[in-house]
Amino acid sequence: MANIVPITNEIGDVVDYNYYCSDFCAKQDPNYAGWFGCVENYSAPFCNHCETPLFWIDENDYSTYLGKEKQNV
Ligand SMILES: [Zn+2]
């Protein structure tokens, strides 16, 4: 799970997400527009601000990682 900040284009469509370890780090994002909530993370191994390893899920085989390390669950 991770905190995310949606990145929108000029017409307001979400085009990407930045992933953060915490709401504190998410607030460093210029796109921060309020707490978006914790979501499943399928792509970002590290916090976009402080590089803290994040839990994320490889969609191909549903294995769980913390940063670059595969977790045995
Ligand atoms: Zn962080």
Description of the molecule:
- The chain has 73 residues and is mostly beta strands.
- It contains 1 helix and 6 strands, in the order ββαββββ.
- The strands form 2 sheets. It has a 3-stranded antiparallel β-sheet.
- Strand 4 (55-57) and strand 5 form a beta hairpin.
- The two termini are 15 Å apart.
- The mean pLDDT is 91.
- The structure holds zinc ion (ZN).
- Residues 20-22, 25, 47, 49-50, 52 line the site of zinc ion.
Q: How much strand?
A: 25-35%
- Overall pLDDT: 91
Poorly predicted tracts of residues:
none
- Fraction of helical residues: under 10%
Q: What overall geometry do the principal axes of the alpha carbons give?
A: globular
Write the layout of secondary structure elements.
Layout: E1 2-8, E2 14-20, H1 23-26, E3 38-39, E4 55-57, E5 64-66, E6 69-70
Antiparallel strand pairs: 1-2, 1-3, 4-5, 5-6
The chain binds zinc ion.
Short description:
The protein has 73 residues and is mainly beta.
